[in-house]
Amino acid sequence: QVQLVESGGGLVQAGGSLRLSCVASGTIFAINDMYWYRQPPGKQRELVATITSRASTNYADSVKGRFTISRDSAKNTVYLQMNSLKPEDTAVYYCKISVDRTGRTYWGQGTQVTVSS
Question: What is the pLDDT of residues 84-105, one digit of tens each?
Fold first, then answer.
């Protein structure tokens, strides 16, 4: 059984910063890619950032230059540093991981990020 626990969400003013963390626990032999998604109110969930097992990264155009994804493989943890936050970044943020040779994926429960104008 694999569990993901996110933390670091909250309320911040526009222009501020937050750092999200997501820790994976359970029976994991290897974590492949790690992801951050978000779901704004009334909208579909969207991919924000990806980091591969070799630490290659990709970002949605809307967050490029403002958000940074990183990982600590020894701690089974993925981070999302969010700077220069905008009201449109308001959403529930979810982490997802792909594990082992099966590529099975697991989701976290989500953490709320609210950016006030």
Answer: 999 999 999 999 999 988 889 9
